[in-house]
Amino acid sequence: MNMPAAPAKPPRKLGIKENYALLTRGLGWETSYEPMDKVFPQDRFEGIKIHDWDKWEDPFRLTMDAYWKYQGEKERKLYAIIDAFQQNNGQFNVSDARYVNTLKLFLTGVSPLEYAAHRGFAMAGRNFRGTSARIACQMQSIDELRHAQTQAHTISHYNKFFNGLHDYPHMHDRVWYLSVPKSYFEDAMTAGPFEFVTAISFSFEYVLTNLLFMPFMSGAAFNGDMATVTFGFSAQSDESRHMTLGLEVVKFILEQDPDNIPIVQRWLDKWFWRGYRLLTLVAMMMDYMLPKRVMSWAEAWEMYFEKNGGALFHDLSRYGIRMPKYHEVASKEKDRLSHEAWGTFYNYTQAAAFHTWIPADSEMQWLSQKYPKTFDRLYRPRLEFWREQQAQGKRFYNNTLPMLCQTCQVPMFFTEPDDPTKICYRESDYRDNKFHFCSDGCKDIFDHEPEKYVQAWLPVHQIYQGNCFLPDANPAAPDFDPLAEVLRYYHMQVGHDGHEYLDSPDRRNWEQWTGKPGVAA
Amino acid sequence: MSVVALKPGYTGEIKDRVENFHGKQLLYIGWEDHLMYCAPLCIPVPADLPFGALTAQIIPALYPAHPDTAKIDWSRVEWFRSGRPFTPDPARSLADNGLGHKAALRFRTPGLNGIEGSCS
Amino acid sequence: MSDAVFIAFQANDETRSIVEAIGADNPQASIVHYPAMVKIDAPGRLVVRRESIENLIGRAFDLRELQVNLISLSGNIDESDDEFVLHWNQS
Known about the structure:
Helices cover 59% and strands 3% of the residues of chain A.
């Protein structure tokens, strides 16, 4: 082989802008065997008009080589920490066993959404005719699959020691409170590709996801759970890329045609409200479920939505976009949301895959300080009454199924925006049927597309229709126990998963295995 | 436009039609100012159930743990159908009282305001 | 006052120098330490400069490495080989 006399000058290294341009502008083509409209049949029916797909920019300008390199690095770091956590029995170093209930809610409620996002972005990517949009969706789809996997791997270790974690995909598709996150994501996935990315990339990831990951993961660290912090932050580092893309997507759509503005505004209104209702579960995690607390839900809402979200919508106002409808209702609810939600799970924890409990005195004091306007007046009396009842051996459970909102599927426990003592009832009549809602936000969503939401699989109604029993159950039998049969259908074990924490095997095991109290002082 | 869909004329199946409840209909019941029971309750009932059966047996059995349940004076209770006040006839059926499938029935018990007056 | 942009990193050895560089390049920024997380807020605009980080860590740094430890951010992004800028567009 002939060697050149002098080594050639290495080719000039491309800058990231050139590199990204070659990847996203050079790889697409106009189809000629079939018209583009037939190849991409789903990117027109929502009414969004795109004139120049080349205006779509990924501000990170991530190319595939860099993507694999940095993702690989994140994975190596993550699994090294998970290994160390497992080898050191890290599960016994968390604040107390109540903490693990946040993981149960996370694994059954959030991790399946990561998987759904993986599917959703794969579908959206297929349906956009712009190359850079397709590449962005592809990367995000792979990211989301990674998140689902890392979460399952991390939490599977807890499954060896705690109850309620044993069958999360099965539960996600059936259990009453998990229909809330499930239906949220399926609503987005059954919309067109533009609504999907606006819903998930912008409204959820940009506007709301900080409220889930930042206080929750920081809370996990504070409670000694290094494994969860690590998957959380590892996922979140992808998330910040997704969020950025979410903002760029919305700006791209708005800049393409003035007719897009009212459509996008309606999506922002809808998906703000749906996402906010979903975050009810997070509010309760922060205020009630973390034994060591980082900040209250109300403080997180002020910091991440009112302040940071306010700045974002201020920035978008130059396109004629305003704050999402009913954001002021969310702010009015911030002093009650977590208390109402925790009360609800306390009512029905016998049919949940995680435990509930009455906060300790020091925790009630914290709640009272964080919620001076509401806690002592509205919520402390019921918590103290429940505690007394429990001391007498009469732990309170609500044995009748609740009324659900047709849109968000949350039990109708939300109160009137201007009166925290009155349940908020809204209803619509459609095709000779009545439909009920927890709020004006949820009613507006239904009223705009009733043909979609009349199909909602509402767990309470499904139970009464007889659709939530296993095939061998016999509702005609004299000793038929509907609750026990529904739990069997959910794959929940009575006496292990769910019900009161103080009476649970989780608490007994924790005390026996660690020698530490079940409720940290 | 009642849905944004790929195919024109798309319609959805109403999942909770009364025919799907094996001869019963759904009734939602909410007790005002008593949020210890966190949300209105949902029960299946026959359409020909006399309204009086609700107060005599059904409603008290839904709220067994509340200290106010035993104190309810049914003659003073105020009723609301879809949020509007109405006077039910206890001898007549739910249907005759205008309470169809998925009706929202609320009741207020004047003088009873929950645990320590907290509306719980 | 202009709206704040922010960037948050995992609190670890790699980000200590990054946060220090950002603090030096953005005197108006406020740096808050949370459990396992550092959040940096700045009114209107925040710049991360490659050179400042390289001076502190003593090796070449690719700004895309930020992603390994990034938790979240808010603001429009302009990224080049030398600078990573977060900003809001309103005056």
